[in-house]
Amino acid sequence: MTATVLPLLTDRDALRAAGEVHRRLHELDARVTHVRGILTDVPLEDEAAARALGRHLVRTGTSAPVVSIGLDLLARLGEPEDVPCLMALGLFRTFTRPVVTALTAIDCPAAALVWLSRFTEGREVRRLVDALLARDERAARAGLLTIPLDPRAVGSQTARRIAEAVMLDDIIGDDPVDAATLAQAGRLLCRMTRADDYRSEILAYDRAVNAYEAFVTRASQLDPGLDHYAILLSVALDLHSGPGVLLGWRPGQREALLSTLESVLTAPAWAAVPAGEPGDPAERRRIHWMRRSARQPFSRPDAPGRLRVEVVVRDPANPESVETRLLVDGRPLVPEVFGRGPANPPEHLLDTGRLRATAEPREVQLAEAYCTEGCCGALYVTIHREGEHVVWRDWRRPLTLPAGRPAPGLPEYRFDAGAYDAEIARAESDRSWAWPARNTARLIRTALRDRPGILARWDARLDWVSTHFAEPDTIEVSFTFRPGIAAGREDKDGPSLQFVREFPDDGTPPEERAEAALHRLSTEDPKGYAEVRGGSRASAEALGYPWP
Fold first, then answer.
1. Quick one: 523 exposed, middle or buried, by C-beta within 10 A (0-12, 13-18, 19+)?
2. What is the SS3 assignment for 385?
3. d(Cα 431, Cα 437) in Å, to the nearest integer?
4. What is the pLDDT of residues 255-279, one digit of tens each?
5. Which of 261, 380, 425, 463 is the most exposed place for a label (fewest CB within 10 A)?
């Protein structure tokens, strides 16, 4: 298909060339999918002629494939005068994404506005979009403040597009800036670092460094309070070990911002924020997180090495998976080389000893795509001890990066064996990040794995033990019931059901809470007090249990 169009790109008569494009694509019965992107990497000998042709196709094209060819050309050669036409084309579903691509290189706020117009539905975001389209700056700033940045309402990509559309770094970079706008800017930065849209959108935000600089240098203008403290601590955790480390910082710039945040959060008025024991469970959970995490982004390793392992828990007001961050030479590995989801939790990488190096090579899954490995892949590495070194090599990951670019080959990483062993041992023994329910879950999980007979006597086998995602003080124990397990005559082709038992917080220490749960699981058939969560209706009926 490229050969059909390529000879026309140097024709200085755009009208004639456009007519020929129409004729040739019509004769080939071309569809949009046949032509989209075919000119992305083609060398252009005469950019002026190709630009003129692109404009003519976009403005006068009478079929979607023809317009798509024009959009391909303007994505490379477009200029500010093309913005109005492109924005109008963006209203059509077929062209929205290529229009956003074309506009991003010319006018990033306009590209974000087209994206928000097409892909968001929330009332507050729509109000902001309307204000921006009307060029009503006052209404736009007011609209920005009303947007709820709950993960269920605003995903990471939407947060980035909002920041681009309102030119966030400019808004908070001009003094004076009101505290409400500054705090909302911090929330947007935090949303962009989450991996719930498969990648951390902060890495796609071209103005991220400017926005961080503007926000952090004005952080002291915020009033000390629970929400503001959580925002500043979240930003610091990202600048310390999250995807924000990978941005294009000037030497020492990121470290200076962390120093500023440390100065703010250790000032007496701010240091007093995570004190007391509020009655509200959500507030109490948040304050305990602040106490556990307050020093983490400002700590320095006693013996710096090539590898650093940090377990990071995000603000419990917006729950997300606990992440084992792996930093090689100071750079977070998973967002840099995988970018389809966060690193696996410590229960997978640390509690199991998977990161330990032995003479026998062992393949380890470091991260899995947010959707599942079966959908979008995972990141694997083989860990092997070779004399005085530990080697990470033989990587496995998807063939493309989230942006669609081919994934380059990954190098072999070699670590000093002594330093590597010390870092893994430190990370495995460090439970400073964990809250009581997480420690309880670990004790229950370890006991059930070490003593499988506890569940086997009830014809059950352990699936997993963890804390509830939305209620992190509640422990969930999942097990599969299949008749015959206790007698050693399990019918693997027969009916089975998944059960989940929740153990809510009762205020007792983890050891006592775990012992009580294990005692009940040992002495009372858990199928009588757990809920059916998986299997099939047919299996439930065959085994005599109600299907939910």
1. exposed
2. strand
3. 12
4. 999 999 999 999 999 999 998 888 8
5. 425
